[in-house]
Write a structure and sequence with these properties.
This protein has about 130 residues and is α+β, with helices and mostly antiparallel strands. The chain has a domain of about 80 residues. It is built from one helix and six strands, in the order H-E-E-E-E-E-E. The strands form two sheets. It has a three-stranded antiparallel β-sheet, with helices on one face. Strands 4-5-6 form a three-stranded antiparallel β-sheet, with no helix packed on it. The longest helix has 24 residues. The chain starts with 7 loop residues before the first helix and ends in a 10-residue tail after the last strand.
């Protein structure tokens, strides 16, 4: 080691990128039917009436996964409107114009709707495995 010391910021970025790659790889494997996941116990989607920022009345919002953050890197939520592709949203960023990811926790996220002072809790929702064709 030199006089500069160990570069923890660089290691942290590498770990976060590797974690995102693992999550994406697992999602692709699940979509392709290579791995199976547990069947959902109950629907954990927030109904569209509770979240006016969704595009159509048939949509609900589902938390499909999380990547935990720490003091230097924000947590990341994997959110999707029902039936649509998931989107990675970092803490503090907006899912759409009206829904902001306030906080990412290991089993849920706190969302804040534009103009509301009380956050909405969205629990982690296990997704059913893709059917083999």
């Amino acid at each position: 080691m030199g006089a500069k010391g160990f570069d923890y910021d660089r290691i942290q970025r590498i770990v976060v990128i590797a974690g995102m790659a693992v999550v994406f790889g697992l999602w692709l494997a699940e979509e392709a039917g290579l791995i199976r996941t547990a069947a959902p116990r109950a629907s954990a989607a927030i109904p569209p009436s509770a979240l006016p920022g969704l595009q159509s009345s048939a949509d609900g919002l589902v938390l499909q996964g999380v990547i935990a953050g720490n003091d230097r890197a924000p947590g990341i939520a994997i959110l999707a409107s029902t039936g649509k592709r998931p989107v990675l949203v970092a803490e503090g960023a907006y899912f759409n114009d009206d829904i902001r990811v306030e906080r990412v926790l290991p089993d849920r996220v706190l969302l804040r709707l534009r103009g509301d002072t009380v956050p909405v809790v969205l629990p982690l929702s296990p997704q059913p495995a893709a059917k083999a064709r």
